[in-house]
């Protein structure tokens, strides 16, 4: 199979793309891939590490408010269509796959207009703006939450596959805690606010970190690359707290994590469900349609996770919640048990079959 894959901006788009690519490679080892992403966001660094050919296109997201920068954004957007047309025709794929982010818009729409088969995957319970717009250009649409169907106008295109990141996570090799300077026999709490981090939550958690001093568990706080120096320069770190800017292949750490504190991005949630990691969600309130809260609430309603809204993240609430959960073994174990019954098994297999059918329709 020859496939162009596009998407980016955050790990929530990139890692599902990699999971799909890995499944295609497993089924068809001689497959060829070209990844189209932005010129300046994290996919430009991550994708080439996997020996996947990469094309970066200058694009920016539109500001919701009136801004002079939108003029440059629109200019780049128009140029992106021209570049996409050339790149797609030169590669001549069997199928073009979009996994979200504004870069998918010119790639998928151009591919469809050129007569290529197109496929998009939506990770969140509420579809992003790009995927809603691209519905008319997509031959098939895979969704991670069954509730997402109501946001699309063409139900015949929709297949509930789940998120392939979960399946991919199961194949990751567990990290040795010593690699991270952690104690092997102590419980581990992993705090990470998404692949890019969160300035506001990082500031709040930074004030809380001294409260974890002398606990019998350890904290691994992943700040995001943009915030690491700011935090470490002003904080005296307790001995049981380790701070790092970023961890590639986070699932290796999640496999040795006893409790996670996380945003509620859909890809991270799928990994949490697959690996059965008890989690306290702090959903981002700054995303479209508050979809992270709705993502997390799906798990909370079934007793498979806890939730603290960002506006309530004050005082020692996080410390108390973690302490209480570790003390109450029955409650902790119930979270793990309930995680077993959630999610879709074999997501990447379902997606591969959809792609294969599309290719064979040509």
Topology:
Elements: E1 2-6, H1 11-27, E2 32-38, H2 43-46, E3 53-57, H3 69-91, E4 95-98, H4 104-113, E5 117-122, H5 129-134, E6 140-143, E7 158-160, H6 164-170, E8 187-192, H7 199-208, E9 217-222, H8 228-234, E10 241-244, H9 251-254, E11 259-262, H10 266-275, E12 279-281, H11 291-300, E13 306-307, H12 317-327, H13 329-340, H14 347-360
Parallel strand pairs: 1-2, 1-4, 2-3, 4-5, 5-6, 6-7, 8-9, 8-11, 9-10, 11-12, 12-13
Helix pairs in contact: 1-6, 1-14, 3-4, 6-10, 6-14
Radius of gyration: 21 Å
The percent range for strand residues is 15-25%
Helix segment count? 14
Strand order of the largest sheet: 3-2-1-4-5-6-7
Percent range of helical residues? 40-55%
Tally of strands: 13
Average pLDDT works out at 90
Largest sheet: 7 strands, parallel
Low-confidence stretches: none
- End-to-end gap: 12 Å
Structural class: alpha/beta
Q: What is the overall shape? A: globular
What series of H and E elements makes up the topology?
Answer: EHEHEHEHEHEEHEHEHEHEHEHEHHH
